[in-house]
Design a protein that fits this description.
The protein is mostly beta strands and 136 residues long. 7% of the residues lie in helices and 43% in strands. Strands 1, 2, 3, 4, 5, 6, 7, 8, 9 and 10 form a 10-stranded antiparallel beta sheet that branches. The radius of gyration is 14 Å and the shape is globular.
Length: 136
């Protein structure tokens, strides 16, 4: 298959998230919220942290999807509809039970961080965050 195949044939897309101390890529599934996020790229925001979760405003206001979850695996890319924010948990939050990643409320699940999500520990509240479509 040619490397120049149109992106519209793929059901997954990769985004790049960068901040002053690092970066990561994440693979998004084909969901209504991930489509809205992709259409809004590139975006810039300011990071906030809550326990071992990084989140930031996207200025998007998608609806809560039917398969939204509050407890997710570390490295899940989630969308917190109540805060119009992308949420990136890599460990326990203040409301977690044990080592689980418990988000503030049910969130739309968009995909997964590629690699070790603990790189998010280098994000500091107030850091500039950029989200772009990663080169295929």
């Amino acid at each position: 298959m040619s490397e120049t195949a149109p992106q519209t044939q793929s059901s997954q897309h990769t985004i790049r998230i960068t901040w002053p101390a690092g970066q990561l890529t994440a693979t998004l599934d084909d969901t209504p919220t991930s489509k809205a996020l992709l259409a809004a790229l590139p975006l810039e925001s300011r990071a906030a942290t809550w326990g071992e979760e990084v989140y930031f405003d996207t200025r998007l206001s998608p609806e809560l999807e039917g398969d939204a979850r509050q407890v997710v695996e570390p490295g899940t890319v989630a969308f917190w509809t109540e805060g119009d924010a992308l949420a990136l948990p890599y460990g326990p939050t203040p409301i977690s039970r044990g080592d689980e990643c418990r988000l503030a409320s049910p969130c739309n699940v968009l995909g997964r961080v590629d690699g070790d999500p603990r790189v998010l520990a280098t994000v500091r509240s107030g850091d500039a965050i950029q989200v772009t479509l990663a080169a295929s």
